Amino acid sequence: MTTLSLAKKLSMATAGAAFMAMGIVSSVQAFTLNNGFGDGTLNVNADGYGSFGSVVGSTTSTASYDPVGPGGPASTVFDSGVAIRFGSTGSRQFLSSGSIGGSGYLANPTVTGSNTSANSSFTYNGLLFSLQQILTPTYTNGAQTGSTLAQTYNVTNTTNSAINFELLRYIDADLYFDGQLYDGGGRLAGNGSEVLFETDSAIGSNDPTTFVGISANGGTIPVTGRYEINSYSGLRSRIIAGTDLGNTVVGDGVDADQFIDAGNSYDVTMALNNLFSLESGGSTVYTTNTYFGSGAPVSVIVPEPGSTLGLLALSALGGGSIFKRRQQQKAVAKA
Questions:
Q1: Cβ within 8 Å of residue 103, ≥6 positions away
Q2: Distance from the Cα of residue 147 to its chain's centroid
Q3: Reduced to 3 DSSP states, what percent helix, strand and coil does the chain have, rounded to the nearest 5?
Q4: Which of 32, 101, 178, 305 has the least C-beta neighbours within 10 A?
């Protein structure tokens, strides 16, 4: 059982009150994606916009992940979604059937699919979105050590005019496997790939741990205002208000490794921004992945298709022996 901070409890209570005020008695009905049980598996309830988390309707909308090691699955995500803005100024709106940060509710599109695949479509201010969500396992040396939720949006401009817009991926992933509220994380970038990740504790490095990461690809990658890792709920509020991302990892200190330094833990939130320009009738593809893993983030995160970001062997980091030891511990704990 996880313990939310007072601020997050109040946020969920406010969202619940808003649902009641709108006459919505039950929580938002999300679509369940699940790839089994045991180490590295994930159960996530995502709506037709691709948003998920305990604030998106109810606690059943969270992502429950089972890391490698003793114990079992636990909730990991407070809120996750894609915010949209037309042009480059003004406020942003989260595409979500839950009110992420008070940005407002949207009617949940119909979702169809299977245990590991979901499909939906919706329109928003002249843009037609077709969304496919696919849940796949991640393997290391033949053993499942994580799961990836890939969300691909095909976007078409249905108006008679060109549209400039941005899609900003945001996540507040709360990892409580170590019993602590505050987490660590960092940014990995190079050779055309970029991942922001949150770890169960601030270790100031890319060493093996439990983590959640995100990537976002498509359109134009801005040089400034591309990414930010910062604390709840300041980052989320500024995203909604329309503030540019700061291209910063708060808590990294004076070094240049872009990892939150050991001892600088906080309630981590992360965001990545992509820019788009579509002529009338034009289409584009936007893909954002969420990575749930156990190990060194750079070793077990699967790169985007076509990426040249190499996967480092776990044995080079001593990860193979770590996983073997944790598997043995888990077997003893369940015996």
A1: 83, 92, 93, 94, 96, 240
A2: 12
A3: 15, 40, 45
A4: 305
> Would you say 183 and 268 are in contact if contact means Cβ atoms under 8 Å apart?
yes
Report the C-alpha dihedral over residues 39, 199, 147, 167, rounded to 10 degrees. 160
pLDDT above 70 for 168: yes
Amino acid identity of 266?
Answer: Y
CA angle at 243 for the pair 226 and 269, rounded to the nearest 5°: 65
CA 56 to CA 28: how far, in whole Å? 7
77-86 β-sheet, strand order: 93-95, 77-86, 163-173, 268-278, 227-231, 248-249
- State the pLDDT at residue 48: 95
Higher pLDDT, 309 or 90: 90
Q: Tens of pLDDT along 72-107?
A: 999 999 999 999 999 999 999 999 998 899 887 899
Q: Could you report the per-residue pLDDT of 195-206, keeping only the tens digit for each?
A: 999 999 888 877
* Tokens at 63, concatenated: 């992502």
Mean pLDDT, range 223-238, rounded to an integer: 96
Distance CA 39, CA 144 (A): 7
Residue 51 tokens read as: 């948003």
**Residues near 320 by beta carbon (within 8 Å), at least 6 away in sequence:** 141, 314
Collapsing DSSP to helix, strand or coil, 238 comes out as helix
User: What length is written for the chain?
Assistant: 335
- Least confident segment among 25-34, 275-284, 291-300: 25-34
pLDDT at residue 102, as a whole number: 85
What CA–CA distances, in Å, run from 179 to 2, 74, 77, 291?
8, 11, 15, 21
| Domains of the chain in sequence order | 6-334 (2.70.98)
Query: Can you say how many angstroms the Cα of residue 193 is from the centroid of all Cα atoms in its chain?
Result: 16
Here the tokens at position 329 are 């511990």
Q: Are 94 and 87 in contact (CB under 8 A)?
A: no
The predicted model scores a pTM of 0.84
Q: How far apart are CA 54 and CA 82, in angstroms?
A: 16
